[in-house]
Amino acid sequence: MEKASIDIGESKSFKAELALEYMRLVLAKNQKMNLTSITDPLEFIEKHIIDSLVALDYARGDISLIDVGTGAGFPGVILKIANPSLKLALLEATKKKLAAVASMAGQLGIGPIDFYPMRAEEAAQMKGMREKYDVAIARAVARLPAHLEYLAGFVKVGGQLVAMKSGQIDAEILSAKNAAKTLGFGNIELAEAALPYSGASRKLAVYTKHAPTDRQFPRHNSLISNSPL
Ligand code: SAM
User: Fold this and answer.
1) 70 lines ligand 1 (CB under 6 A)
2) pLDDT in tens, 43-86
3) Ligand 1: which residue has its CA nearest to atom 10?
4) What is the residue with the minimal CA distance to atom 9 of ligand 1?
5) Atom in ligand 1 nearest the alpha carbon of residue 121
6) Model confidence over 63-75: pLDDT tens digits?
C-alpha cells in the first residue's frame, strides 16, 4: 500500500484562511440546518479539512473532478481551495444542503463550480455528464460495490474513481471485485494516511477505468442497495 501524501507545499495556492473561513460558514449554517455532526473546530480541521486533502494527489492540475454525495462540501470544496484550477462539479441528492454549499462557496469566491442537486443514478445517465470526468470521488456515501456503481458512469475511459475510506478495507475491496470488473475498472491502487491529531487511519482505493461502463449502470437505487454487483 502506498503512503498518501498531503503535499500542499506544491500547491502554493492553498489558502488555509479560506479553508478556515469555510469552516466558520459551515458551523454557522449548521446552527440552522444539519450539515455536520462535527462542531469542535480542531476536530473539524482534522476530519473535514485535512481528511479531504488526503485525496489531493488525485485532484492536481486542471482536470475535471466530480464529488458525488458532497454533503457539506467534502472533499470537493477543500480540494478546490487547494487547487483553484480544478474543474469541480458537486453533486448532492439533498437540494437544501447543496444550496447551502453553493451559497458558502459563493461567499468565499472560489468558483466556478458546477452544482448538481440530484441523485447520482439519475445524473450518471445524462449525456452531458456520462463519462465526462477525469476523476469521480466520494467520501462516506456507500459501501464499495454501491459506491463504484454510483460513480462509474461519470468517469472517462482512462480516468480514475476514488473511494475515500477509513479502517479495514481489504474485505470491502474483495467484495467489490466483481463490481469493479463489471463497471469497466481494472487496476486498483491503494494509498493510506494517518490523520495528524487522532492518528486515525484513512485509505484511498483508486480504480482506473479501462473500458466504457455499460449503459444499464447505474441501476435504480433499490437494485444498487438490495442486489449489489
Ligand atoms: N461526502 C460528505 C462527507 O464526507 O462529509 C457527505 C457524506 S454523507 C454521510 C452522505 C451524503 O451523500 C449525503 O449528503 C447524501 O444525501 C448523499 N447521497 C447519498 N446517496 C446519494 C446518491 N445516490 N446521489 C447523490 N447523493 C447521495
Assistant:
1) yes
2) 999 999 999 999 999 999 999 999 999 999 999 999 999 999 99
3) 141
4) 140
5) 23
6) 999 999 999 999 9
